[in-house]
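anyone seen this seq b4? input:
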Amino acid sequence: EKAVNLKKDLAEMQEWMTQAEEEYLEKDFEYKSPEELENAVEEMKRAKEDVLQKEVRVKILKDNIKMLATKVPSSGQDLATELNVVLENYQLLCNRIRGKCHTLEEVWSCWIELLQYLDLETAWLNNLEEKVQMTENLPDKLDAVNDALESLESVLRHPADNRTQIRELGQTLIDGGILDDIISEKLEAFNARYEELSHLAVSRQIALEQQLQTMRETDHMLQVLQENLAELDRQLTSYLTDRIDAFQMPQEAQ
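predicted toks r here
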């Protein structure tokens, strides 16, 4: 009777493993939304816990069969053979579910990381847009133009590392068929805005550089003119002080 019960337990264990494999490993998952992906991750975590909890039952079966083998070698030997098959299948099931759970957790982590990088770069784009807008309607003053140019150039020196991460993470998920529609839409919108703002910012940078150069040249010309006028004023004052007749002055002084 003991052997019959153990044989029944082994059969039930094998049946449970077959059902678990069908439910958790052979089902085709399509992750078209973050909610579906997150639910799949949670389901695989529960599956892993469920499978690992059966380890106690497997150990009890193993101990009981060993004990039976010492008392009734003939029955114990047959059950030991069946037990080895169950143990192999159980270990395989554990490994496969652990692997799938780890894979899904990595995929979810990849998605969250992608969102974080998109948030960072979107904040940078917002800052860039603000700096570009600040270059409009500037007062016609050298300091104001120079400050606006330096501020814009500072934002444009933003490294490209985050955009590289966005491209690689997005492509990895899309290649796996995971959230591909959502990610493609997000990347398309981000890249379009990035290209538009980058081109606009560079154009404004060039325009400000040209405006600054023109203002500096004008300032230099005014400074030279002012110095020349000051020298001429000094000479004229000297002539008047010395009471020199106008016809005795050089032509340019007259």
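DSSP finds six helices and no strands in the chain. The longest helix spans residues 73-134. kinda curious what u guys think
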